[in-house]
Amino acid sequence: MKSLEETDALLKEANLKLTPTRRRILKVFRKYPFALSYNDINDSVKEKLDKVTIYRTLKTFEEKGIIHQVLDTSSQVKYALCNSSCSKHEHQDAHIHFKCTSCHQTYCIEDREIPSVPLPKGFTEVHSSMLVEGICKDCNELALL
Ligand SMILES: [Zn+2]
Ligand SMILES: [Zn+2]
Ligand SMILES: [Zn+2]
Q1: Entry pTM
Q2: CA 68 to ligand 3 centroid distance, Å
Q3: Domain spanning 2-144: which CATH class is it, in words?
Q4: Higher-pLDDT residue of 84, 17
Q5: Alpha-carbon distance values, 26 to 10, 70, 79, 85, 91 (Å)
């Protein structure tokens, strides 16, 4: 199946061993178009994995440039797949995130960059994120039916 090959390719590219756990968690990310929390992943993997394993895998994926943190207004940290320009050296996820107030999912809007904000004297930017809330495409389409 093509998607499995792509999952393996992502792991190989990051110099990670193709373990069943990593494959399984990465498959979950590839299945959904929106950011996932620990709970979402835990609910989606067929055979249960322990909590520490999931957290450790997420941390490894983040360090290797496979996923990035998505800050939204929910109390849980969410992660989304990076695009191919991220690597273990540097993440390139300067895009906005969009949280749907109807389905409560948060999407990466990869072709919309975070506008740069001029900071007051004495402040240095390290990282910035931007969350836009509203109604997503799917929910808007549903509303029209
Ligand atoms: Zn990234
Ligand atoms: Zn929605
Ligand atoms: Zn994103």
Answers
A1: 0.88
A2: 7
A3: mainly alpha
A4: 17
A5: 9, 16, 11, 17, 18
